[in-house]
Every structure is written in C-alpha cells, then in structure tokens.
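User: Show me sequence and structure for the first protein, then do the same for the second.

Assistant: Starting with the first protein.
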Amino acid sequence: MMRAFALISVAGLSACVQTQRPMALAESGPVAVELAGRSYIADLQPTEAGAVLAMTRDGSAFGNDEGLEAKRAAEAFCASRGGAVNRAAYGHFVGGAWQFKGGCA
C-alpha cells in the first residue's frame, strides 16, 4: 500500500513540474520589429548569466526615460516568437539601448 502511494505521489509531483526551455537566440543577428508604426531592432544575445534582449530604435537612440516603449517593443518581439518578456523584469539603459535580462521565455 505504501509503495503504491509513493508511486502515485511521484507521478503527481512530476506532472506539476514544468520545464521551461529558453527561447532560441536569433539565428541571423538583430531582428526588425514593427509596433504602432515605429521600427525597432531586437538583439537577443547569450551572456554568462543567461540571455539578454537589447532593444534599440531603428534610426535613433532611446532616451533614458523611454523604458516603457522599449519594453513594449520587446514584448512584441517575444510574442512574435511565442514567448514573453518577464513583466516584472526591470530594463537597464545602456548607451541608447534598453536591455532586458532573461530575454524571452
């Protein structure tokens, strides 16, 4: 009886565990993204700490106060690949680009 209970418990726990695979990096480098009539460039790159998604505008740099616009463009990019940006993740402004740690999940 205990053995049957143990097997059922293990089967039940394994059904609860969901493995989340990281999204594949862009095979051809930066990818163009269109959102609300504006053009952006998404660049998903590996780092030692995991993937980082860098968003830039096509033709002009982002400002330090434009993180929400960059995050919305990042969300559009990830959605086009069947993923999502971690909505709780803060972006980091680096030289005209907004970077999001973790990339798309």
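Switching to the second protein now.
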Amino acid sequence: MQDFTDRTNHKYIVESKDSVNSIFDYFFDSELELGNVDRPITIFNGKRNFYIARVNVFKNAKGGKDFRHLKYPNVYKKRSKLKPVTI
C-alpha cells in the first residue's frame, strides 16, 4: 500500500481475507468485499494506492517472511491471430 499523503509504503503478508478487509478499512473510507483473488488488484483513490495479489511466502535467511509473486498467464490474445471483421 502506497500512501501519497505522507509518502510512506506499507507491506503486509496476510493469510486470510478478513485481514485484508480490515487493512483496507483502516486506510480507506469505503467497504471492500473481496471474492477470490485470481489476479492482482489495484485500487487507487488519488491519495492511496492499494495493491493486493496472491504470492508464495517463504522464510528468508534472516528468519523473517518474504514473498515471490505468482506467475500469471497472459490474458491478452495477439491481434495478429484474430481475423478482421468487415461490416
């Protein structure tokens, strides 16, 4: 989460959807109802940028938690393979 009002970054590793909702409610004045997070989601309201994604969590060399982003398949089809339509 990036907070542009005081130029800070906050990073959270959470294990449940309720934790994400409580973090969102702390920083925003609206309600968020998350479904299954299949792809990364970004919410920006002009002051704060909220980014949520599923990640692989592991222990780093210092004994703390760290993460790697999951590899998502490309959702865009190449336009060269699509046939043009004439109207």
